[in-house]
Amino acid sequence: MSIRLLGNIVAFQLGWFACVLGGATGRPYSGALVAFLLCTAHVVRAPAPRDALVLILIAAGTGAVFERVLLDAGLVTYHDASGGLFGVPLWMIGLWMLFATTANVSLRWLRGRTTLAIAFGAIGGPLAYWGGERLGALTLNTPWASLAAIAAGWAVLFPLLMRFARHFDGHPTTIEPRHAGI
Known about the structure:
- This protein is mainly alpha-helical.
- It is built from 6 helices and 2 strands, in the order H-H-H-E-H-H-E-H.
- A two-stranded antiparallel sheet has the order 1-2.
């Protein structure tokens, strides 16, 4: 495992915990600041900084819309929703931005593997929200319906964001699978 790959995984996990714990403990801006700093470091070190930034902004916008849908449907409640974008807490937007930093690094192997990306989204998305609830950052208002909606959303959005990642990649010569399945 390369240092870049390991660093990407560790940075994402540190950012995830900073965002979620910041939201859970009434310090939502601290997690958003950590996410911003990690995303900035990612962009500065990226082979194609402009592409990395565009991908992060696409993820932020996509996440803001998805989270707003969850809020409007009454499926989630954030315990500290101060600030934010469209009523979505900044720490949550930060999580989406952090996710984008993994798409062309530690999650690169999932690009072109649509079936696996769907499965990872449908499983990983709900697990992340469930973890956020366990840590006190949010409430899944109707747990099974909330998790089902999150699974469906992430099953669509994860592969979509991976397609954007392929387009906004600083390593265009990287060989990837040509098939759309596993």
